[in-house]
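Record type: monomer structure entry
Structure origin: computed from sequence
Chain ID: A
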Amino acid sequence: MPLVSYARTRLIVPVVVLAALAALGAIIVRHEKPLPLPGRLLWPAAGLCLWAAISILWALDGELAIRGVLKLTGNIVLGAVLVGLAPRLRDSESVWIGRAVIAGFCLSLILLLGEAFSGGLISLKLRGAVPSAAGYYWLNGNAAVLSIMIWPLAHLIPGGKKKAYLIVPFALLLGVDTFLNYATGAWVVISGVVVASIFYFWRQKAAKVFALIIAAGVMAAPLIPGKVIDPAAFGRIDGFPNAAVHRFYIWDFTAKKIKEKPLLGWGMNAARIIPGGKDRAVDKVRGDMGYIMPLHPHNFALQVWLELGFPGALLLAVFLYQLIRRLSAPDIDRTAAALYAGQFTNGLVLIGFGVGVWQSWVMVLFWFTAALSIITSRVAAAE
């Protein structure tokens, strides 16, 4: 999967679908079936799909909304199957998959290191890509995949003093993100490590506090751009990244649009064609920043609020709250819980700052690596 994402991130979708079908077929042959998602996660996920389908009635573009609902529902069903299949695998199969995780991650990381230290030589020769002020932006997707894929790998690092070796893959990935000028990727890696460390030492308290903060953050998301973040103020700060200033203008515009339809939202996939979205964001100091809404708000909570309104945001907040609280369960050991928390945080930061929440490759990546972490944590526990 990570090697395929080097060519194009969208290509991981058919790869994961084929993997899921192959595993599902093997399980059926054994006269078994995937374990169901816990009700506390299943019901808000199903509710989100249902509400997204209802929003087709007032969506700006019915066809676009239907496509969005089908993608969302399909990805959640796929994810439920993947996570339900993981505990059904035999020990020998789990060990084999663990080795494949190591191989896939390392080969892809070596490829990105080669790109970083050669000045993008491989891309320049094979793709004819040209570096810009934004760096080697065409490699950002591959780096994002590795930032989530690193957590299933982390479970396989031996325990005890050897757990210090965990720093190696994280340091290498952070270095790659720095060389590629991929600031979002660097923050993804750093935030995941920080949260994982907190959970390792204070799991019970961290799960409660973190769950409440995330849920409250989702519900309060439309208030933050207007009350806390002033794009023009950041635009006057020398050295502050242009991409971040642009992002703040996008968020400010999104928050204003949410206030126009806070209850029902604009309908599924409305961000792509929201009125005024193709106007230009112009900063008094930095000039033209680009579209005020380039396809999506680059923030999962704002996008859900914009398109699905208060009910959608509430369902998302409940789902995330229940997911985090699960990490305090006694059947998950401290190390595994910390690594799960780091993986969750990496994904949250990625959809909070870098990509659209409904993008298929993103949802597939999250579900697939969650299943891989369940598998690799079992391998680690057995050893």
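Annotation 1: Strands lie at 280-283, 287-291.
Annotation 2: The chain has one domain: 2-30+40-221+298-382.
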